[in-house]
Amino acid sequence: MTTDTSATEHTPRATGTPTLEITDLRVEIEGKPIITGVNLTVNQGEIHALMGPNGSGKSTLANTLMGHPKYTVTGGEIKFQGESILDWSPDQRARSGLFLSFQYPTAIPGVTMINFLRQALNAVAGREIPVREFRTRLNEKMALLKMDQQFARRYINEGFSGGEKKRAEILQLHMFNPKLAVLDETDSGLDVDALRVVAEGVNGITGSNPELGVLIITHYYRILNYIEPDFVHVLVDGAIVKSGGKDLALEVENNGYENILKELGLEGAGGSRRGTL
After folding, report:
1. I want to staple 44 with a disulfide (CB 3.0 to 4.6 A). Which of 55, 87, 186, 211 is the partner?
2. Domain that holds residue 36
3. What is the CB neighbour count within 10 angstroms for residue 238?
4. How far, in Å, CA of 162 to CA of 242, rounded?
5. Counted domains in the chain
């Protein structure tokens, strides 16, 4: 189903050329269709929220955008800044300015945050960043996110609380300063205080980089109390079935997806692939 975001009344932070263009995207996992025809455009400076029932394909879409080898694109197109990226490796996508905040960040024992960030930033920048420049940048970003400086000395996500893992993801977002940020359930498992800090971190980078496009994947309305979306989309059984403004997210929060599915004649949809992502 084609999504016409131009029909909404919300004005984005900045108007620009499309950063991300997804056209009739179809994705399978081990021969099983998960994404069945997604159409979505994120322009420079726009914040989009993607909601949907469990198993609707939200995380599959996020991982496909970053080129995860588990997911096979069987149809459609993904363009980033006007170029097809279907044949690009994950590192090519990252170096071009795509960023994914993981729903379940992986622990990497023996590798400190500071070493990881420096090596990754050098790779993304395509040059060796001077130590003093790197440390100044890191200290500034950690202060913005209200993170103790010792945090950078810890091994990546090892022994981290849920909130610490998500803060580490947002720290990476700030350090890399991408062109498109895909936040896969960044609010999952956070208490109110941690959610507020993470949201402030996202708002901080969108405020300093008005051309940044953001796609927030979430189950819950609560993060949208802190991050104002320009557009909200509902994904059901691998396709976007409805788009609107923040009021659409509030409708989902208050009534679930049942009314939307009935309105579209899709009763019974959304649960046929429980357990998939």
Report:
1. 211
2. 5-108+178-263
3. 25
4. 31
5. 1
Cα separations in angstroms, 256 against 14, 52, 61, 228 = 31, 9, 21, 20
Over residues 23-34, the pLDDT tens digits come to 999 999 999 999
CATH number at residue 43: 3.40.50.300
**8 has pLDDT over 90:** no
Share of the chain above pLDDT 70, in %: 90
Per the domain annotation, does 34 fall within a domain? yes
CA dist., res. 37 & res. 150, Å (int): 45
pLDDT tens profile 93-112: 999 999 999 888 888 999 99
SS3 state at 55:
coil
**DSSP label of 11:** P
Q: How far apart are CA 182 and CA 192, in angstroms?
A: 21
Q: How many C-beta atoms surround the C-beta of residue 25 within 10 A? A: 24
Report if residue 269 sits inside a domain. Answer: no
Q: Which pair of tokens denotes residue 50? A: 């993607």
pLDDT attached to residue 16: 64
Mean of the per-residue pLDDT values for the chain?
A: 87
Tell me which H or E stretch contains 60. Answer: helix 58-65
Element at 270 (helix H, strand E):
none
Answer yes or no: is 169 within a domain: no
Q: Are strands 180-184 and 213-217 parallel, antiparallel or unpaired?
A: parallel
Residue 43 lies in a domain: yes
